[in-house]
Amino acid sequence: MVYRKLNGGRSTLARKPNETMRVFITICVGIMFGFFIGVSFPTFPLTKLNITSALLHDFAVMGNKSTAISTETIQNISTKNQVVKDVTKIWVPSNPKGAEMLPPGILASESDLYLRRLWGTPSEDLANKPKYLVTFTVGYDQRNNIDAAVKKFSENFTILLFHYDGRTTEWDDFEWSKRAIHISARKQTKWWYAKRFLHPDIVAPYDYIFIWDEDLGVEHFDAEEYIKLVRKHGLEISQPGLEPTRSTTWQMTKKRDDREVHKETKEKPGWCSSPHLPPCAAFVEIMAPVFSRDAWRCVWHLIQNDLVHGWGLDFALQKCVEPPHEKIGVVDAQWIVHQTVPSLGNQGQPEDGKAPWQGVRLRCRREWDMFKTRLQNAEKSYFKSIGVDPSNSTGRS
Ligand SMILES: *[C@@H]1O[C@H](CO)[C@@H](O)[C@H](O)[C@H]1NC(C)=O
Ligand SMILES: *[C@@H]1O[C@H](CO)[C@@H](O)[C@H](O)[C@H]1NC(C)=O
Ligand SMILES: *[C@@H]1O[C@H](CO)[C@@H](O)[C@H](O)[C@H]1NC(C)=O
Ligand SMILES: *[C@@H]1O[C@H](CO)[C@@H](O)[C@H](O)[C@H]1NC(C)=O
Ligand SMILES: CC(=O)N[C@H]1CO[C@H](CO)[C@@H](O)[C@@H]1O
């Protein structure tokens, strides 16, 4: 950095051969070293002056040999080096934005959700560090269902509950509740919590992150087995197969009986613009998604702060992995039941004589449109900015 600064200011040098440059740099380093010593031992200012002036003298002799670098120039450089005083202050441009003044060795850019104790040696706090994270967005009325679900997740999981009804302490009736993390904010949605509390740097230690609804039946599901299959089939974004019911809308997420995992399906004619595109492939729903660490790092950025219901997100997840039709899939061998109990959907405001759930549903639809429009516009302006017409490529919708 210092070299660059000095070189930048030296037009005389630019014309000179490499050797001069080398000598020059050596001298500069010498000067700086001298300066550093001077600053390090401020009680001996004369030492500093002497070293500097001795170097300047040497430099003048060498400069005479091959060039017209004058003592005045050197003095100018020397003056500029007063700025280099800042070398004793830390500035690391490669540090995260805002933390440039800290030495890289002290930066703790990532965190975790591990609970620590208040005494003893920090390095001995954690008996085990769970490698997976599961979150449920819950109301207390669904406690028995959540209790059943949590028991399908081993001690290798950190359990995080987002409470939308403000009731948290009651959960301590469950033994596992004391090792769980509880976050409470009234009447918010899963994606609202996820955006605020699951920043990729916070959940960085977890290989896989489950962001699940509260109304899932998990009788035929085991989380460790699920992860084995996800690893085996290279799924970055996945969900367990859904037992087919009347409310199962998409073919893709229906459980199949003849395989461990499926990554594509057939939909009704005209529903898929390509067999590799949602909802025929590269598609999971938003009720029970599982993300790898890397996929989540992308998806977190895709979640909009104001579009809290996450509608349309399922169609866009494919933007976050490559190739999506191979890295997004449904695990059939570990499957769940979507019980569709009325929960947060019932917590809207009655408006214009409409039931609360209607207001919520209306907002969901509206958000879906807004999300689609935002994404399309963002893509358009990106391609425009680099002068490419994406309609000419084999781009994804
Ligand atoms: C500079 O070089 C010239 C001849 O090359 C020499 O006569 C003169 O003494 C030199 N000056 C210094 C300061 O070394
Ligand atoms: C040295 O700096 C002074 C004032 O900053 C400037 O006027 C002079 O031209 C500089 N000399 C050289 C050789 O760069
Ligand atoms: C937890 O993870 C460890 C290490 O991967 C594994 O050996 C153990 O079997 C896991 N626990 C369960 C209950 O599967
Ligand atoms: C798209 O491709 C066609 C044929 O390859 C070409 O003629 C046309 O100029 C392209 N359009 C743009 C905007 O690149
Ligand atoms: C304090 C000190 O060491 N001063 C010395 C600086 O250098 C000149 C000559 O290079 C000496 O004469 C001084 O004694």
Describe the structure in brief.
The chain crosses the membrane at residues 21-41. This protein has 397 residues and is α/β, with parallel strands linked by helices.
Question: What structural class do helix, strand and pairing data support?
Answer: alpha/beta
Strand share of the residues?
A: 5-15%
Gyration radius, rounded: 30 Å
Q: Can you tell me the CATH architecture of the largest domain?
A: Alpha-Beta Complex
Distinctive features:
disordered N terminus, globular, 9-stranded mixed beta sheet, Spore Coat Polysaccharide Biosynthesis Protein SpsA, Chain A, membrane, 9 strands, 12% strand, 35% helix, binds 2-acetamido-2-deoxy-beta-D-glucopyranose, alpha/beta, 397 residues, single chain
Q: Would you mind describing this structure in some detail?
A:
InterPro entries: DUF707 (IPR007877). Residues 245-270 are annotated as: Disordered. The chain crosses the membrane at residues 21-41. Keywords: Membrane, Transmembrane, Transmembrane helix. Helices cover 35% and strands 12% of the residues. The chain has 397 residues and is of the alpha/beta class. Mean pLDDT is 84; it is low at 1-16 and 41-48. The chain contains 12 helices and 9 strands. β1, α6 (143-150) and β2 (157-163) form a beta-alpha-beta unit. The chain has helices spanning 2-8, 11-14, 18-40, 45-66, 71-80, 143-150, 190-197, 223-232, 293-302, 313-316, 324-327, 356-385; strands spanning 132-138, 157-163, 181-184, 208-212, 216-217, 237-242, 261-262, 290-292, 328-338. The structure holds 2-acetamido-2-deoxy-beta-D-glucopyranose (5 copies). One 2-acetamido-2-deoxy-beta-D-glucopyranose (NAG) binds next to loops. One 2-acetamido-2-deoxy-beta-D-glucopyranose binds next to α4.
